[in-house]
Amino acid sequence: MHEYSIVMSLLEQIEQLAAQNQANEIIRVQIKVGVLSGVEPRLLATAFETFKLEGICHNAMLDMNIQALIIHCRQCDTQSELTECNIVCPRCLSTNTQVIDGEQMMLMQLEMNTD
């Protein structure tokens, strides 16, 4: 399960940001997970709950926003939002498309306590 290694990297990044901001607790972690990121949201949430217990995120809530796949069709020049792993234009059925968003997993926001 690569979600475990992803969560470990995420927690390392959070620890660094917390240290830079003299935070003693992370309250909320907001991430964006793209449909094409290759990350299984349910497994990621489970891994986060498991690994957060030993660090600054021990009480943190994970706020996960699933990013739909946004594609631009070069054939009919339309932009479409898709909720499945599919790069075929729903309008003209062309595969001559470009992914605009929905491929990444990103840390979007941290809510920290610095008291």
Model description:
This protein has 115 residues and is an alpha+beta fold. It has two helices and six strands, in the order H-E-H-E-E-E-E-E. The strands form two sheets. The chain has a three-stranded mixed beta sheet, with helices on one face. The protein has a three-stranded antiparallel beta sheet with strand order 4-3-5, with no helix packed on it. A hairpin with a 5-residue loop joins strand 3 (69-73) and strand 4 (79-82). The N and C termini lie far apart (36 Å). The model has no long low-confidence stretch (mean pLDDT 95).
Helix content class: 25-40%
The helix/strand class is alpha+beta
The side-by-side strand order for the widest beta sheet comes to 2-1-6
**Can you count the helices?**
2
State Rg: 17 Å
Describe the sheet with the most strands. Answer: 3 strands, mixed
Q: Give the terminus-to-terminus CA distance.
A: 36 Å
The count of strands amounts to: 6
Order of helices and strands: HEHEEEEE
